[in-house]
Amino acid sequence: MATFKLNVSDKKGKTVTKEVKDKDASPFVGLQIGNELDASLIGEAGKLTITGGSDKSGVPLREDIHGGVRKYILLSKGVGLLDAEKGQRVRKLVRGNTITEDVYQINCFYDGELKVEEKPSGEQEKKETTEKSKKA
Questions:
Q1: Do the beta carbons of residue 91 and residue 124 sit within 8 Å?
Q2: For a tag site, which of 7, 44, 81, 89 has the least CB within 10 Å?
Q3: How far is CA 14 from CA 2, 6, 7, 21, 114, in A?
Q4: What range defines the domain where residue 118 resides?
């Protein structure tokens, strides 16, 4: 069965990573970039919009390629190409817009506000002091 890592972000820029496996992951298989689904799958109320993702080898999902296949395409800008100069085109490997079992990470947008669990500052200070003492 499929296992996905969900990166869910909200309007305020907060991001939460959740891992969904087997039965919880089955509703995601077959969906496309831009589709909306119920956020109850991650334990929230509202809607999730799929914005992108990548497969197990890091190849990004691209919205304008149909299906779940990997293809080499000629890119001049957009997802899958970082810094191209004006007029430059590069042939790159990208994956289609459909989520398959080969997809590893799914990026989503949550229409509400996420509840982020923050660690107490005392725990972070203890970790920093122990790391400094190990280096010395």
A1: no
A2: 89
A3: 26, 13, 10, 23, 7
A4: 3-69+95-135
List all residues 6 or more positions away from 122 whose beta carbon is below 8 Å from its beta carbon. none
Domain assignment present for 124: yes
> Would residue 81 count as lying in a domain?
no
pLDDT in tens, the chain (136 residues): 789 999 999 888 888 898 999 888 888 999 999 999 988 887 788 898 999 999 999 999 999 999 999 999 999 998 888 888 899 999 999 999 999 999 999 999 998 887 766 666 656 555 565 666 666 5
The SS3 of residue 40 is helix
Inside any domain, residue 87: no
- pTM value? 0.77
Decide if 110 is inside a domain. Answer: yes
Kindly state the tokens that stand for 35: 């589709």
Contact by Cβ (8 Å): 46, 110: yes
